[in-house]
């Protein structure tokens, strides 16, 4: 298996027998959600869709997997989402086979999808790799494999020698599953987790050093801090979260 980090997304291409392009946390319609809080921003859905299409052209995948939170507003579907999502999803499926792992923002997403496109919320195996959004416990079938998940919006804040923090940047966290936190079925073998950053530029994020304590999902509590490694959106290896975020704050 080969993992390719697509910086222009951020997106991930998982290459084995099939080429699976993974995009997490699109949050289409986020502008209407911000408007309800007094923040007025013109819709950037067209630009966001264009970035996804550019990733498709760049990687030529067999499958596009949207890893949850395709839409933003909960518990309702906004007028912006009703207006924009059909065209956005048609643009994707016109170019490549589409699958959606539903997230906690995706109530009612099924009305916009075609038969067979919606995966179970507890995740699915595709080409030997487990995929789920990350707000639910994984299906037991996913243990003993690499599990790719979204939901947590990991970012990393790089600090220079004089202690000035740079802008938080999208990042990936790769780690073993802490088996004491979430025991795997007998004989399942080693389970690894890859937390994928959010695609949406307004979605914000949680610093990787605080991901475990965030308790945002059942798998964030199971990060093995002794094996965890951090990568930037372009695949640059940064080291362990402990080295980036010392416990004493230095």
TrEMBL record:
- Cited Pfam families: Metallophos
Occurrences of domain Calcineurin-like phosphoesterase (ranges): 19-153
Q: What is this protein called?
A: Metallophosphoesterase
Q: Which SUPFAM superfamilies match?
A: Metallo-dependent phosphatases
